[in-house]
Design a protein that fits this description.
This protein has two domains: about 110 residues, Archaeosine Trna-guanine Transglycosylase, Chain: A, domain 4; about 250 residues, Vaccinia Virus protein VP39 (Rossmann fold, 3-Layer(aba) Sandwich), CATH 3.40.50. It contains 16 helices and 22 strands. Helix 9 crosses helix 10. It is globular and about 70 Å long.
Length: about 475
């Protein structure tokens, strides 16, 4: 077992060569790809939560109520750009630079839990370890053991495999998958018996992370008025500028984070409008004709999304369940299901290569997009969704396009193509003034693809420029 730190991976190629080559082609000269590699494998320096402000408004609760949710040791702040966003700093713990020597490992009786890269990504953002994420562990593992948490970066372990080091032998441990790097993630406490962890239908938390290498508030069990969401994703609903009477389509909605934000803002605007007119907000919700339709191709994901949204907003949706509808539909065939000029707002947060997601401990060999042709195929599918959505937008309506990718093919090139093919129907909108005047999280689009007057209307979240975010892209169009 070759134990390494997360930091040591930054010298390796972390994306397929085809992706790296296209980034080099379109990114500005002098762009720091060394810093890019370092930050890609680490989480953003801020964790963030979105406040479901409609719930607080309906219960006459405010900022102090939100802040009381978090332990005092965390410096939780309301964002000065996004009033429904609260941020929490993420810091390196004492273990980040810990040397993986025999003396340190012996303190934990040579006991390990091995997780896959997906689980590792979640751990680095403050999550516990669920049973499904545990790949292998020490043969003698018992409930309540303190263990070293490591990631099998090359995915060579099989599920349930035993690390057999009964006599605390350092040489035996080093011989276990000796050519395979295992990335140290922190110290945990086992809260399931070993045999239970690997049972087929076991759910729940298997290991509590006691000392992670990155420390932040745990976000996996928040009350319903809070929702863990990246800062960049919180921008989306603000770009949509939802009104109390809006009809909204979210084309690729699962797992439902952005749909939840749109639903919150719709309900909030209904409540605000009702209070301004001296009406009871419950009656206003019950009589509202506004709708949000959340789509996804996979029926199971749609069901999970519907349950999640109802769990958050049941206290308000009970007055008018028709406000929210979740459907299993393929958004590349919208014309089959909807008439033109149906929606006031449309979100196309399209499926993408996910190259902006961080932390990203996925080995490049496992990335689904290995060639330029595969990247272009992904971009073609994205454009097909937008092409299907545009006729459904009412005159004066807003369409937001976004991805959690950083490639030009999925972002600025799509904007260019949309304007070339639909410039007679759509115009690229500027950002809301309060966002443009204080762009602390984002920069503009790539001028290697778009003219400057269009590039400045795009939001490119670049974690080389701002360590507080993931890589993300967004822009918005208005129907003429």
């Amino acid at each position: 077992m070759k134990l390494v730190s997360v930091e040591s991976l930054s010298g390796n190629p972390l994306l397929p060569n085809a992706i790296l080559e296209t980034l080099i082609d379109y990114f500005p000269k002098g762009y720091s790809f060394s810093l890019f590699s370092k930050r890609l494998i680490t989480p953003p320096s801020l964790s963030s939560v979105r406040v479901n402000s409609a719930l607080l408004l309906s219960e006459n609760k405010g900022k102090d109520f939100v802040l009381e949710t978090f332990p005092n040791r965390w410096k939780v702040e309301q964002d000065n750009l996004l009033e429904d966003c609260y941020t929490i700093p993420l810091v390196q713990s004492e273990l980040y630079h810990q040397e993986m020597n025999e003396q340190f490992i012996k303190k934990y009786n040579y006991k390990f839990v091995v997780v896959d890269y997906r689980c590792a990504n979640s751990i680095l953002r403050g999550a516990p370890i669920f049973a499904a994420g545990v790949i292998a562990s020490s043969k003698s593992l018992c409930k309540h053991d303190s263990v070293l948490i490591v990631c099998d970066w090359n995915s060579q372990c099989t599920r349930g495999e035993k690390i057999d080091v009964n006599d605390n032998s350092w040489s035996q441990l080093c011989a276990f998958k000796e050519d395979n790097p295992f990335i140290f993630l922190g110290i945990g406490e086992v809260i399931m018996e070993r045999s239970e962890i690997y049972q087929q239908h076991t759910k729940g938390i298997a290991v509590e992370v006691k000392i992670p290498i990155f420390d932040t508030v745990q976000l996996h069990s928040l009350p319903k008025y809070l929702f863990a969401q990246n800062v960049s994703s919180i921008f989306i609903a603000h770009l949509m500028e939802v009104r109390f009477d809006s009809t909204i389509l979210d084309c690729c909605a699962a797992p439902g984070g952005k749909s939840g934000h749109l639903l919150n803002n719709l309900l909030k605007e209904i409540i605000i409008n009702a209070k301004a007119e001296g009406k009871d907000f419950k009656e206003a919700i019950s009589q509202s004709k506004s709708r949000i339709l959340a789509l996804d191709r996979q029926k199971s994901k749609v069901e999970d999304m519907k349950n999640s949204l109802w769990n958050q907003f049941d206290s308000l949706l009970q007055y008018n369940p028709k406000i929210l509808e979740c459907k299993a539909l393929d958004s590349s065939k919208l014309h089959v299901h909807f008439q033109p000029n149906t929606f006031d707002r449309i979100l196309c947060d399209v499926p993408c290569t996910g190259t902006g997601l961080r932390p990203n401990l996925q080995p490049p060999s496992l990335h689904p997009c290995q060639t330029l042709e595969a990247l272009q195929l992904q971009a073609s599918y994205q454009f097909r969704i937008v092409k299907e959505a545009i006729p459904l937008l009412k005159s004066g309506g807003i369409l937001v396009y976004s991805t959690c990718s950083i490639t030009a093919q999925e972002n600025e090139m799509q904007v260019k193509k949309i304007l070339e093919e639909f410039g007679n129907k759509l115009e690229l909108m500027d950002l809301p003034s309060h966002l443009r005047q204080n762009p602390k999280y984002f920069t503009t689009g790539l001028t290697s693809v778009l003219p400057e007057h269009d590039a400045i209307k795009c939001l490119r979240f670049d974690f080389v420029e701002c360590d507080q975010t993931i890589g993300f892209f967004a822009c918005r169009f208005r129907a003429k």
